[in-house]
């Protein structure tokens, strides 16, 4: 089969919705495959790259892929890669991935493009890896597609970006297994030592100015809350209000860095001691914590209550993005039971240097790796996650080898 790759057009929306339904059924948790208004917005956005593949002989729609961009932060995300079941085994997924990635970088407006891939088979992992994407980690229970699924994070970089990373001398010991896995899997060096355990004054984030678990199949949810403090939590899910308040609290875009994330929910105790801005997606069963005002440490003691509130709102998986150099932020989330899941080297550009970030995640549902297809590139990350999870949630005598 031969196929022609073309930019998507508004008149394609009905066929695209049918394509995503044929591939995923009713379980696709992304608006670009089901919401005509959102699809029209993305197709007509000059900074979004949406490509389709059609059979050359019949014109039948065979595949689709999108790269959304945050030009202000010079970051893109590849989403919505789908090939109709009738047209698989012809390399079409790889062609679409390569074409949309090349289009995105050709603008000169992006330093990196990342993507998350399902792990029901190894095929999606191989597709992105063959097109220059590097594996960066695992996100267990990150999406509710056909049940609770683990996703893998990959990223591709513009030339020279990884050569201009700002080094970080030392990190909390809990991050060392993840960083070691990254070096083993990708060859990207971190050269970080372990912070002294008695470090009292953690470093600030960049400004524009041990033992391991056996490789079993199941990780049970925490037997008891990692943080004991119970704080009443109010959850406000009013997207327009939340966006306005977020911009009032963080008028400088550099003050809250979370590319391609728009908060739609705010969580706060009744006394207003802190406000947590989040991107909540009940359809996917997930939530990303975008920013905390006045600081992450202000909410540390209440993060268990935050998790409980988000669980009631439909999110079984919660993640946050923290600079690798932000020792205070890392300690705040690590102490609340968040586990280092993925790194993102050279994610943020400040001047002519690039700063590394790390994804910390927490899920209060049992993690089942028995049906997860882990390719050799991702195997080090699975071992690192098991080690970090065990060190967080099991007593020390249960995790020594």
Give a written overview of the molecule.
With 401 residues, this protein is of the alpha+beta class. The chain folds into two domains: 3-157, 3-Layer(aba) Sandwich (Aminopeptidase); 179-194 and 205-399, 3-Layer(aba) Sandwich (Aminopeptidase). The chain has helices at 13-24, 36-44, 92-106, 123-130, 176-186, 239-249, 303-312, 327-334, 379-393, 396-399; strands spanning 3-7, 49-55, 61-70, 75-83, 112-118, 134-144, 148-157, 170-171, 193-194, 218-219, 234-236, 265-268, 275-281, 286-293, 317-323, 339-350, 353-363, 367-368. The longest helix is centred in the first third of the chain and has 15 residues, at 92-106. The N and C termini lie far apart (53 Å). This is N-acetyltransferase domain-containing protein.
Number of domains: 2
- Report the count of strand segments: 18
CA radius of gyration? 21 Å
Task: Decide which structural class fits the backbone.
Answer: alpha+beta
Topology pattern, helix = H, strand = E? EHHEEEHEHEEEHEEEHEEEHEHEEEHH
Given as residue ranges, the uncertain stretches (5+ residues, pLDDT < 50) are 199-205, 207-216
Q: How helical, in percent, are the residues?
A: 25-40%
**Assembly level:** single chain
What is the terminal-to-terminal distance? 53 Å
Q: Average pLDDT, to the nearest integer?
A: 89
Sequence of strands across the biggest β-sheet: 1-2-3-4-5-7-6
Largest sheet: 7 strands, mixed
- CATH overall fold name of the largest domain: Aminopeptidase
Based on the structure given, which CATH architecture of the largest domain is correct?
A: 3-Layer(aba) Sandwich
Strand fraction:
25-35%
CATH C-level label of the largest domain: Alpha Beta
Shape: globular
Pfam families: Acetyltransf_1
Domain N-acetyltransferase: 3-159
Region (Disordered): 198-227
Protein name: N-acetyltransferase domain-containing protein
């Amino acid at each position: 089969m031969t196929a022609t790759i073309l930019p998507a057009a508004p008149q394609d929306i009905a066929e695209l919705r049918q394509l995503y339904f044929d591939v995923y059924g009713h379980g696709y948790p992304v608006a670009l495959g089901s919401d005509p208004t959102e699809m029209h917005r993305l197709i007509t956005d000059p900074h979004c790259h949406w490509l389709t593949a059609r059979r050359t002989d019949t014109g039948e729609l065979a595949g689709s892929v999108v790269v959304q961009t945050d030009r202000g932060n010079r970051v893109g995300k590849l989403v919505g890669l789908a090939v109709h079941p009738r047209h698989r085994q012809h390399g079409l997924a790889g062609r679409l991935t390569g074409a949309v990635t090349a289009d995105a970088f050709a603008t000169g407006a992006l330093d990196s493009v990342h993507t998350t891939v399902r792990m029901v088979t190894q095929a999606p992992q191989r597709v992105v890896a063959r097109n220059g994407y590097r594996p960066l980690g695992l996100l267990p229970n990150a999406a509710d597609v056909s049940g609770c699924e683990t996703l893998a994070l990959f990223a591709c970089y513009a030339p020279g970006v990884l050569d201009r990373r700002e080094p970080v001398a030392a990190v909390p010991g809990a991050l060392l297994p993840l960083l070691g896995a990254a070096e083993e899997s990708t060859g990207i060096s971190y050269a970080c030592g372990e912070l002294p355990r008695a470090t009292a004054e953690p470093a600030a984030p960049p400004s524009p100015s041990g033992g391991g678990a056996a490789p079993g199949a199941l990780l049970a949810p925490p037997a008891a809350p990692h943080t004991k403090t119970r704080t009443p939590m109010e959850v406000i899910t009013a997207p327009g209000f939340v966006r306005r308040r977020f911009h009032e609290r963080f008028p400088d875009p550099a003050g809250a860095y979370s590319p391609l994330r728009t908060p739609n929910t705010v969580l706060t105790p009744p006394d207003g001691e802190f406000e947590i801005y989040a991107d909540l997606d009940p359809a996917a069963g997930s939530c990303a914590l975008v920013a905390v005002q006045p600081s992450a440490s202000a909410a540390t003691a209440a993060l268990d209550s935050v998790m409980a509130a988000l669980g009631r709102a439909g999110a079984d998986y919660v993640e946050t993005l923290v600079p690798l150099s932000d020792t205070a932020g890392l300690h705040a989330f690590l102490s609340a039971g968040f586990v280092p899941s993925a790194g993102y080297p050279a994610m943020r550009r400040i001047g002519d240097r690039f700063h590394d970030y790390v994804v910390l995640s927490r899920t209060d549902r049992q993690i089942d790796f028995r049906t997860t297809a882990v390719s050799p590139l991702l195997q080090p990350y699975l071992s690192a996650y098991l080690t970090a999870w065990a060190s967080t949630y099991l007593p020390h005598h249960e995790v020594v080898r």
